[in-house]
Amino acid sequence: MPNKNGNAYGLTALCPINNGSLDDSSYAALTRWFLQEMPHGENSPMASVPETYLCRFYVLNDVFYEGYPAKEEHLKSKYLVFCSNFHGELENYLRTMWNSIPNDIKKIWQYCVAFNQVVDADSFINYIKQCQVTNNLFFVGANDESLPEQLKALYLKQEFSRFVFENQQLNKRENAELLRQAFRDFISRTKPENLMGPSWVAGSCTEKINEAVVHSFRDTSIDSKTGNASA
């Protein structure tokens, strides 16, 4: 089915930008500047939108001419392109997006054609659907679970790797009870059945988390006889 892969939905919307300018800067340039200044990662506005797997904004200036036998064509407007992969249905997602970050939406789309008519969640949904293009070959780089389940899985994977590293010296039979207690502590701390937390923070960077963990590993040693950690 176009746009869908299991419970995942792939949205692509091409929103025309007004052909005008403000203070000697085109509306397209102002839109691009705003997107470049938007915070990334866990501070991104889209990190606050539930069920967002990934999201991308960019300004499309024109289409490329690939040479003969293709026909050279050009766009009449520049476009704000909005791509999002998420879990669930389109209208529910867009409504939640509007309710979560209305001010950010207004700033991102402020120079787009007819966006001044968008005043609430319903008109935002209609606007995006009018700008939507069909994804006939939609591939989602995630499993079919909800975002909270995927964030929890990422968190557990990271924390279990840390658990293995910190307890790898407890590999002798006389340390079996110490290892069992360490694993019970791991389960108690990570709460695998609780999707609400602790969990991976939406938008967090793997490299950033790994760096913190590596420093923690580097500064910690474990006594193989007692199981005690020392810094």
Q: Describe the main β-sheet briefly.
A: 5 strands, antiparallel
Count of discrete domains? 2
Strand content: 15-25%
Radius of gyration: 24 Å
Uncertain residue ranges? 207-231
Compute the separation of the termini in Å: 55 Å
Order of helices and strands: EEEEHEEHHHEHHHEE
Morphology:
elongated
Structural class: alpha+beta
- DSSP, total strands: 9
Helix content: 25-40%
Q: How many helix segments?
A: 7
The mean pLDDT is 87
In short:
The chain is of the alpha+beta class. Helix content is 38%, strand content 17%. The termini are far apart.
Structure, described:
The chain starts with a strand and ends with a strand. The protein has helices at residues 27-37, 90-100, 102-108, 121-131, 147-166, 176-190, 206-218; strands at 4-5, 8-16, 21-22, 25-26, 52-60, 79-87, 132-133, 221-222, 229-230. The strands form three sheets. Strands 1, 2, 5, 6 and 7 form a five-stranded antiparallel sheet that branches. Strands 3-4 form a two-stranded antiparallel ribbon. It has a two-stranded antiparallel ribbon with strand order 8-9. It folds into two domains: 4-133, no CATH class; 147-230, no CATH class. It has 231 residues and is of the alpha+beta class. The model is unreliable at 207-231 (pLDDT under 50).
Which characteristics define this entry?
disordered C terminus; alpha+beta; single chain; 7 helices; two-stranded antiparallel sheet; 231 residues
List the helices and strands and how they pair.
Blueprint: E1 4-5, E2 8-16, E3 21-22, E4 25-26, H1 27-37, E5 52-60, E6 79-87, H2 90-100, H3 102-108, H4 121-131, E7 132-133, H5 147-166, H6 176-190, H7 206-218, E8 221-222, E9 229-230
Helix pairs in contact: 2-4, 5-6
